[in-house]
Amino acid sequence: PTAFLVAGTLFLTITAPVQLDAPWLSVAWAVEALALMWFGARQRVYEMRVLAMAVFALVAVRILAFDTVVGADGYMILLNERSLAYGPVIVAMGMGAYLYHSGQAHIRASEEYALPALVVAANFLALVALSAEIFGAIDNNVIGVAADSADSVKSLGLTVLWAVYASIALALGFWRRWRLVRLGSLFLLAIPVIKLFTFDAFQLEPAFRVAGFLVLGLLLVLAGYFYQRHSAAVREFLT
Question: Would you tell me how many other CB atoms lie within 10 Å of the CB of residue 143?
């Protein structure tokens, strides 16, 4: 049975690039991986879930290598080939993580890290795609920025994006009582804080530097407020 599953998955995976071009190839592989994960979870077929994770890894590497940068002709924020490639993969990984979280898959010991791996990968790809949108919007003059301020706007945009993303994830972790989400959000929130003090404070123009500190300071105050309001959850998290 394992040999048939591997051979069938291999044929499906090889057939997609023969028939499809980017970014539809990424869409096809995302659908294939999710179908394998869904059937493997519902029918408790361990090998299919392993193959699904392999296809997820393959499509993630592919979009990072080939679909992150898109052409400038007719560029529109979020409405472009990058979103078409990244979106279905992120959604498929999220649904795969849900199948693991729902308990339908009857996880084996070797799959202990499959759920966090899918969650981390989906969020990482989302951050990469959104960060690329900031660069694309500025490089293609969708957002009018003076040439001498473009680098400052890009750097500040990344800092604000990562901080806002981490804050939303932190609030979601409190709301749904997801300990690992709160932990990952704190780690992600530390990245723009460190970036702001070690890079932005010295490289940004004064106006952008002040804006960065104001935005990040406000987000940190709100995060502290959430922790104060949910002190019991904080103690649970720390212990």
Answer: 14
